[in-house]
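ok here's the first one, seq then struct tokens
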Amino acid sequence: MQAKVQKISWLLVGGGLGVLLATGASAVADKESPSPLPINELRAFTEVYGRIKQDYVEPVEDKKLINEAINGMLTGLDPHSAYLDAESFKDLKTSTTGEFGGLGLEVNAEDGLVRVISPIEDTPAAKAGVKAGDYIMKIDDVPVRGMSLNDAVGKMRGKPNTQVTLTMLRKGETKPLVFTLTRAIIKVQSVKSKLLETGYGYVRLTQFQERSTEDMVRALESLYKENKGSLKGLILDLRNDPGGVLTGAVGVSSLFLPDNALVVYTEGRASDSKVRLTASSEYFGRDGKSLPPEVKTVPLVVLVNAGSASASEIVAGALQDHKRAVLVGTQTFGKGSVQTILPVGKEAAIKLTTARYFTPNGRSIQAKGISPDIEVEEATVNGVNAEVFRVREADLEHHLSNPQGGEVKTESKPGEPEAKLDAAKLKKDDKLIKPKTKDVDEAEALRPGEISVKKDYQLQQALNVLKVQQVIHRTNTTTTTTAAKAP
């Protein structure tokens, strides 16, 4: 199984950024009988091509026309299929290593503009105050409308220590915002950890990279060592994690699930797109040997929100289906499709949607997402809840449908309480996790990359839920031990 995974590097990222890197076209070869060529449509294409070459106001290179035609075919399918020229293909491969030059933004195209899905922690964009949901209008005074997403990303990237000016629209602001940012080498630290209080650990995963499983192992080792070899409970924070390398997601899931437990499976038209991936200690190898066995059973709470996409949803869905963790937060993004990178020529490639993925219990996440066990909204800043400004998969034009129905779009309901909590699902006293509307001003708001139980309302509630889970776990363990000793 692992040999098959090593042969191809899978990437799953929300907002149209993630893919499966494949070595050939067999993964998407249509095994059905080929259809007759659409002669009339091809004739129309040829006629339009000729008219442009002959009558357009300026000469146009054949290469540009063909590239734009290819890109149009792909972008018309769904938000995640696209044509990658040589530079875009190179950028994609570079970004999976966790180090690249730029501003630190996860973006997608929407309504002719570029929308920020999430600023990456500890990057120029996050430090300057760019927020999820912001729309980029101009890049260095060049309007974005009409520009392809690849071109927009290319303009934002550049040599370190050079500047770029972004003009942005933000809901709630009457005038455009202008940010002058200095490009930097973006080194994404995918895993951060902290001991919240004695016995309770916290691990934040910002993006699934090739080394994320190893980084997670080191973070857990550090937490156990800091707490003298044991933990009462653990919080895994996947909020605003747009996804990344699928093997990282399966590896992280494997840390908390028993070997051979199903993590995710995919279904597509081609036989090669039908894959089942299970938990295995092989994903973390020697690095995981020193972890205590309690990692598999320690009470676990997973934090999610609308910025948790794709690989994050795979982990959350697997842990939820196996009843290994309690999910706290809000509905996730809903990126449940697999993209395959197929080489075109010597340097370019196409990114093509080839399959949907499903949780162990057979749930399709596409355009729906993962529902938390306990719903807790984010704290509001000056009366405004950032969650209503987010975009989900179902909001994207031409999004792939969910075969099981139940698609979930971003929806703002006037007068709806800012914090909701269903404590009944714990079947335990709910005094620790009572619903509460939390309103903070900018001075009290959580800063990018900051880990603070005091400022982070969702984290507060996750810790309370974890303490309840720990009590249940301890009670169950005592009961089992007593029953084992009974004559």
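and now the second one, same deal
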Amino acid sequence: MSSVEEEDFFDRLPDQLLLLIFNKLQDAKSLARCLLVSHRFASLVFQTDTVFLSISPRKHNSKSSHRLPVNILKILFLKFIAKPLQFFHHKIAPNKSPARNSGNLSYYSPNEVLKHFKDVKSLHIEVPSHGGKVGLEGIGSLLKWKAEFDIELKNCVVLGATSFQESIDHFQNQREDIVEQVLTDDELKLRVVWTISCLIDASARHWLLKEVLAEHHRLENVTISDINKQGKLCVGKDQITDMRNALKSLATKESSTERSRVPDLSMKLWYVPVLELPETGFSMKGATLVVIRPVDGEIRDLSDDHGDFSGFDGEESENKAFDEAVREMMKMRKNYVMTMSSF
């Protein structure tokens, strides 16, 4: 009886099955604990090809703890609010003034934890949020973004609202016509702040991604999100290949910035004061959608841009509402088109 009780049934499992279990586990901290279980576990854990890592924020002293948000807001105010802005419906207005770098990353590099996972192919990194929702007040406010990169930004989608909640009239099946309205100057400036804040977050995560790619050569897809599920950066196998080809020169140019350069951009903005979403039972006030693409040397017409802009982070029911909001706002004829210089 004692020999049966002492038998380790995991010894009967083949290595490939154990690796499948570890790949389902994903969490780097849990995988690290598995190292202590047995010599066999320790020999297999680092062969895992799917890893999720949540990394901790840097500790700042009291004098510097708020430096990043203050610098960001100062740059946004001086460049995009204090100076006159020119916006046109269905017309592009170039902005000639460059913006400066915004500060340091608010979290540690994940390479120290990941250095032993040499076989990882699919990686999801979760970073701390650097602060609140810039320019938004209230518990019900919303600011979400999703960005795709290769060497530089490919596209970014920003979805914002001053209020996002379940609709009282969600039982109604008939959709009311969307009432379009022109933004006031202050409302438009606020949405510029939202957009630039998201772009700064995205470019900082892209810089972090390049650090990771320099140390892990088998990666095929990477997602970098934040603990508050505000924004998500995604790269696939083709984008990673392009980045690797240019990684050396990029690292030389940007070794001290801790943020990737954002290229000249074309942006298209939709706005509706109240947006009812009967399919999912939610309602948005001040609903705003911004689709961002690089100019690539020439002004780009986004009027026929109908890309796949789904996949925001959030709870499942909220994600469906976000996708519904994007679909409905892109049907609107009235929009703002503008450009932004690189920064």
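notes on #2: The mean pLDDT is 77. Residues 66-340 form one domain.
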